[in-house]
Specification:
Helix content: over 70%
Radius of gyration: 22 Å
Distance between the termini: 48 Å
Number of helices: 22
Length: 520
């Protein structure tokens, strides 16, 4: 039996969802005093998802390398998906006529989904280790983290819009508790603001899903793709409901001016929550557009691509300028995320293979980079008891490991060759320049501004004269190194050898570009 057949037969995608969900329930049942056991259960569950996602990405790369999955655009959108198990789909199905259910537990994924699953698994493993020393209500915190991750995995592997939305909400709603209970500063305000704004976006998404069902006759993504090819969605329908999806998913992706929930949420969230929030959760916005809006409503992209591109360019430059003016270390990284996620939207707006490949690669590279940054910020705050940049200085003398890790993340942030950030930014800007040269040129100024605030941040926090009040500060130790080492290695690995990841992503992007066609 081949690895592909093994993963399909044994419902690997279902286990990605079930393992963290079951571990979340188990943690809630364990006595609060079993501290080490609680942490080991969380690590084991996160580790299992990493093993499964690693097998998935290896197998998918093998299929692409062997030519089984085409990367040249010859495959149809709904013909390149893998790991679909018809038996599981029939087992959980309801509504409609016998044999023709309205809703079914249809799990399948493509190259973009596999890459995002791998990102999620890496982030939750790093997040659990970053939370190892948490002492306040540890089991509830880790249980909510795993529940959130189960929802994220569900979004990346769902081919039925009902379950896509169900898992989307499961991924979003735990953030209110994670920030409201374990956060710092104005945590209640930040948690409520985040929840209300994301629910506003969810309302637009669910309206769009119902409209797709009304016009296409199904919630199943494959059947909707066939309906789209048959002309079930009129040009007017596509234009207005694409805009609804753009706004709905865009709120989670931090588009201007609906981004304000994100910096406040980041600043108040505990370390692992920030890692998952910026590293994974905000990627659901761009992923939702790539998965649903672009292939089903291509005329909508034709109608609104200039608006999306201009707002994305504003995101990039505005986010970078905002990061430049912050004094709180966490706010710098938060506004940096707003800027970098603008590149995702910019790449999607271009509609070219190169640009969309770069957009998805940016989701992955930025997810790893941001997980590293927020892990570092959490460690600095835990050891220095401040996030005020003006109160720091010379930390490289007492914490050289943190300085090296922050430097690697910073260099990736402004796109130094040899890091994942360079590959993503190069593809996005090159692919966008072919379609929108002036917008791309304006957005490129974000790279200059990013390099300024990153280098200035490194100088002010880690170099220069050591603040005597921080002379006692320690470097990372024991379990604290896990998150830093994992993320740094991945940043360098995908920067030095990006071809496997690009080929995997391209297999999913090419059919979408074929549907979208040339933007006018």
């Amino acid at each position: 039996m081949t690895l592909n057949a093994f993963l399909t037969t044994h419902n690997a995608l279902a286990w990605l969802i079930l393992v963290p969900f079951a571990a979340s329930l188990l943690l809630m049942a364990l006595p609060r005093t079993w501290g080490l056991t609680i942490r080991l259960v969380a690590v084991a569950a996160a580790g299992v998802t990493l093993v499964i996602s690693s097998l998935l990405i290896w197998d998918y790369w093998t299929l692409v390398h062997a030519g089984t999955i085409a990367t040249n655009g010859t495959g149809a959108f709904d013909a390149i998906w893998q790991y679909e198990n018809p038996a599981l789909r029939k087992l959980i199905a309801f509504g409609g006529l016998p044999g023709h259910p309205i809703i079914s537990f249809h799990l399948a994924t493509d190259g973009a989904g596999v890459a995002m699953c791998f990102l999620t698994a890496l982030t939750i493993v790093a997040g659990v280790f970053a939370s190892w020393n948490l002492r306040e209500r540890t089991k509830e915190y880790l249980a909510l983290l795993l529940l959130l991750v189960a929802g994220v995995f569900g979004v990346f592997v769902s081919a039925d819009l009902f379950f896509f939305f169900l898992f989307y909400e499961i991924a979003v709603l735990p953030m209110y508790l994670l920030i409201g209970i374990w956060g710092t500063g104005q945590k209640e305000y930040a948690a409520m603001k985040l929840t209300l704004m994301l629910l506003m976006g969810s309302a637009l998404i669910v309206v769009g899903f119902i409209a797709l069902y009304a016009q296409g006759g199904s919630f199943d993504l494959f059947q909707l793709a066939q309906a789209a090819r048959a002309g079930a969605f009129s040009s007017e329908f596509q234009r207005w409901f694409f805009l609804a999806f753009y706004l709905g998913f865009g709120v989670l992706a931090g588009i201007f001016p609906f981004h304000t929930w994100s910096p406040d949420g980041h600043a108040s969230a505990p370390t692992a929550t920030s890692m998952l929030h910026a590293g994974v959760l905000m990627k659901l916005g761009g992923f939702g557009l790539l998965r649903i809006a672009l292939p089903l409503l291509p005329e909508g992209l034709h109608a609104w691509h200039w608006l999306i591109a201009i707002i994305a360019a504003i995101n990039i430059v505005y986010g970078a300028f905002s990061a430049l003016g912050q004094r709180d270390l966490k706010y710098v990284i938060a506004y940096s995320s707003v800027s970098h996620l603008g590149m995702v939207m910019l790449g999607l707006s271009a509609g070219t293979v190169t640009a969309i490949n770069g957009a998805v690669f940016q989701m992955f590279a930025h997810g790893i980079m941001t997980a590293l940054f927020f892990a570092l910020v959490g460690l600095v705050y835990a050891k220095a008891h401040t996030r005020d940049i003006d109160a720091m200085g010379g930390l490289a003398r007492v914490a050289p490991g943190l300085a090296v890790a922050f430097t690697i993340g910073g260099l990736s942030s402004f796109g130094l060759p040899g890091t994942g950030g360079f590959i993503a930014e190069f593809l996005v800007y090159m692919g966008t320049f072919l379609a929108k040269p002036w917008v791309s040129a304006f957005a490129c100024t974000g790279i200059l501004i990013t390099s300024i605030y990153v280098l200035r941040l490194l100088r002010r926090v880690f170099f220069g004269q050591l603040n005597p009040q921080l002379a006692h500060m320690e470097d990372a130790k024991t379990t604290e190194w896990v998150a830093l080492a994992m993320t740094c290695c991945v940043i360098i690995a995908v920067g030095v050898w990006p071809k496997p990841m690009i080929d995997i992503i391209s297999s999913a992007v090419q059919p979408v570009v074929n549907i979208v066609g040339t933007l006018r």
